[in-house]
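[Q] Does anyone have a clean structure-token version of this?
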Amino acid sequence: MKIEVLEQKPLLTRLRIKGISLHLLNSIRRVIISEVPTMAIDYVAFMENSSVFYDEYLAHRLGLIPLTSDQALWKYKSPEECREAGEKGLFSEDCFVRLSLEGEGGDEAVTLYSDNLVSSDPDVKPSFGKIPIVKLIKPQKVKLEAYARLGRGKEHIKWSPVSVAAHKYVPNILVNQRLCRGEECLKCVEACPKEVFAFQSGEVKVRSDKLLDCTMCKLCENLCPSGAVKVSHEEDEFILTLELTGALSARNVLLESVRILEKKLDDFVETLREKGV
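[A] Here you go.
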């Protein structure tokens, strides 16, 4: 298997992966969305709330604030372990992180942001500091304690580490120069929405710097009057795009997804052995 990093940003990763089947890559993608755990606020206790927002509305907003979770994966119990503990472990320190928020309006409107949340664990805090929570005017007040725990995207999307996880084929575009009419036609060059084609040295050519932008809409192939353009895709090569929420790094998202998938397969094999299959 060969992996090439096409783009690496704090909240965006694009990988070109060669030597992997579509079924395996799609399994990894699905695990990333629904199985990789992150921290998110799940319980909110209101001591005071005289803002224009109902308690439930504020709790919903707090739950959707992404929290840094790279260290939490190893420091806190899994959702399953905390669930098994029941009421005894409901707010135990190895299951939950406490975040407090307090503020009141003044002569001018005061906005409480995500960076006003004070966390009991410095490793678990809002990934972004300027997410607005509520605006207060005099004499409105808000005082609350929120409890964050590890969870999975299949339980609620607030626990998913990505906003987008998608894969696409790597295009394979061939131009038969014997059939191509060149400068007399240029329909494929003019029609391509991604500007994949260029007319150079008397021939229509595929731009290597634009090839991966191709969406394989086949507009070029359909409009070519001589049938010189053929669009297909590589069989074992894909582009994986991850747009992160900021809860986990791309590295941890990928490593954890593979670990989870591997464990699921091991459990499946073990069950088959127990059943004598």
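[Q] Thanks! Anything notable?
[A] The domain at 38-159 is CATH 2.170.120.12 (RNA Polymerase Alpha Subunit; Chain A, domain 2).
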